[in-house]
Amino acid sequence: MLLSAVAALTACSGEAPPTSQATAPPTPIARLNTDAMRLVRIEFCSLLPSSAVKTALDGRRGSGERWRSGQEVAVSGDAGSGEADAAGKDVVHENGCRWSADGYSAAAWLFADPVTTAQAREVMRAAGRQKGCTVAPGPDFGNPSQLQSCRLEDGSLRERYAGLFDDTWLTCEVQGPSGSTKSAVRSRAAAWCVQVANATNTTR
């Protein structure tokens, strides 16, 4: 079964980031003890602090949207973990969310079912075939894990981390508008993905 490398969205326009408490600076992504982490496959978006969302959006407050496993939603260009129908709809098998503002976006999703190493590697191979994208091992963000960097058709930059934590597949990404530097987008993506992983980690 080919898993999705990106989830389709169902809009909940105007949704604010879920929490507002202050948080300590996250651990650098290269120092995450991913071997000890166990991520829970739940609808996790309300666990993400608003400060993490704002940082990922380069200081902006974004509008949010969420989706959950089993929903039939409109799919985007590289979306679809279910089977799309003739109308371009897809039943997704992830729980996730996205915030957007002024050409910036931050998103994360967890596959709802257990994932094997073989399935994870199939997703990674598919990510390497996406137009305008390159892939690299990146930092330890699960095992196996991958960093995908994409220059999209509108000139925007997207940095996406994905990895297998035991049997849970996590994907998270940050996108910046045309004119953004790769180092800045990657830095925000790394910090965002640490926040997402920590929010869903049951061993903390």
TrEMBL record:
Q: Which domain of life is it from?
A: Bacteria
Q: Could you tell me what this protein is called?
A: DUF3558 domain-containing protein
Q: Which organism is it from?
A: Marmoricola endophyticus
